[in-house]
Amino acid sequence: MSPTFIDMGKEALGMFAFLATELVILFLVISYVVGIIQDFMTPEKVQSILSSKQGKGYVIAALLGSITPFCSCSTIPFLKGLLRARAGFGPMMVFLFASPLLNPIIIGLFVVTFGWEVALFYFAIAMSVSVTAGYVLEKLGFEKYVKPEAYDSSNKAASCCVSEPKKEETASCCTSEPVAASPSCCGSEAQTSVIEESSCCSTDKTNVTAVKDPSRWARIWTTTWADFIQVLPYLLIGVAIGSFIYGFIPTDLIVEYAGDNVWYAIPIAAIIGIPLYIRAEAVIPLSMALVKKGMALGSVMALIIGSAGASLTEVILLKAIFRNQMIAAFLVVILTMAIGAGFLYSFIFG
C-alpha cells in the first residue's frame, strides 16, 4: 500500500527535526572551536605569513585557508589585502580556492552527514587540487592577469555581505584621521578594537578606553552566536527542502535523472552549482535527502564543490581584481575539481 499524504508529512517532519537539531548543535560547536583558533590566528597573521618567504609554501596557504571559514565571495576582501601585501601569487591562489572549500563547517557537516570516508575524500580532493592549481597558475605566468589597480591600497574591496569597510570613529589624539576597522565578513558587526593608550597630547596621561574588553571566551561565543543567527535561515531552508524531498519526492524520479547510471548527472550538478550558489550549510542537508532518495553521491560531491567553490557574485567581485583570462582559469579549476571529484568518487566507491 502506498503511503498517504499524512504519512509522507510525518516522515518529512521527522527528518526536519532530526537534521535541524543535529546540524544546529554541530554548527555551534565547530564555530566556537574555530573562533578560538582564529583568535590566535588573526587575518593579520595569515597575511603576514603569506606575504613573507614562508608564503611560497602552497600547503601552508591551503591549511591557512582551511581555518578561515569564509564563504566564497567573502574571501575577496582578504585576497585584496594579500595583493597589497605582495604575497606570492601561487599561495594566494591556493588560499582563494581552499578557503571556501575546506572550511571546518563544511568538513564537519560532511562527517556528520556522510561519514569520515566521504569527508576525507572531499578534503583530499579539495586540498590537492587547490595546491596543484595554485602552483600551475603561477608557473604558467597567470600573475600578469592581475589588474594593476588591485595592488593599490587606496581601493576598497567590497564583499558580498558588507558594501564597504566601516570606519572606526575613535581616532588617535595626535592624528586627525580615523583608523580603519576590519569589518567582519558575513558577520553581524565589525569587532571594535579596544584602545588602551595614554593621551599623548594631554598632561594627565589619562587612559582612553572606549569599550571594556569582555573575556576572550565570552567574546568568541558572542561572535559565534552572531554568525549562527545569520546562517540559521540558510540552514533551515536547506533542511526544509531536504526534508520535503525526503518525504514527498518519489525515489524513482531521483534515480532516473541523478542516479548512479546517469553519466551526465555529475557534470550537470557541477555546472548548476555555480549559478545557484547554494551555501554549504544548506546544500549538505539537502544533499543528504537526495542521497537517501537515490541520487549518486558522485553527483552530490560535484554539486557541493561547484556551489561552495564559486558563485556568480564571486565572479563579479573578482572582475575588479582579475582580467577575463584569470576569471576563466578560476572557473575551469572549480568545474574541473567538481566534475573530477564526482567521477573519481563514483569510480573508487561506486
Automatic annotation (TrEMBL):
The keyword Transmembrane helix applies. It is found in: Cell membrane. The chain crosses the membrane at residues 12-37, 57-79, 91-112, 118-137, 225-249, 261-278, 299-321, 327-348. The keyword tRNA processing does not apply. It is a multi-pass membrane protein. Pfam families: ArsP_1. One of its GO terms (cellular component) is plasma membrane. Keywords: Cell membrane, Membrane, Transmembrane, Transmembrane helix. It comes from the Bacteria. InterPro entries: DUF318, UPF0718_permease. PANTHER family: PERMEASE (PTHR42775:SF2), PERMEASE RV2963-RELATED (PTHR42775). Belongs to the UPF0718 family. This is Permease. It comes from Vibrio qingdaonensis.
